[in-house]
Amino acid sequence: MKFLILFLAIFLIKEPMIPEPTCWMDGKCRLVCKNDEDTVVRCLNRKRCCVPSRYLTIQPVTIDSEPRWTLPLTFRPVRKKNKPAKRENKNINHG
């Protein structure tokens, strides 16, 4: 009985271990990033996605224009060609 009470006391005092949500490139969602981490994007819970600096070797690039493949397709109206009137068959056998 004493063992059960001791076990419950230790179990209730201990802080619950909630894993941090992960984000881009093995990053962690945190309020403040550590010294060896950089913020890249925001997580779903509005915290910073802290990525280890060793993964960030290339500087991010901002594209000012919209590449053609990102724009929606616009279709031109198709013009219908005027069909010539049907010709009557001149090779009619009168017999």
TrEMBL record:
It comes from Erinaceus europaeus. The keyword Membrane does not apply. One of its GO terms (biological process) is defense response to bacterium. It comes from the Eukaryota. Has antibacterial activity. The keyword Disulfide bond applies. Residues 1-19 form the signal peptide. InterPro entries: Beta_defensin_dom. This is Beta-defensin. Keywords: Antibiotic, Antimicrobial, Defensin, Disulfide bond, Secreted, Signal.
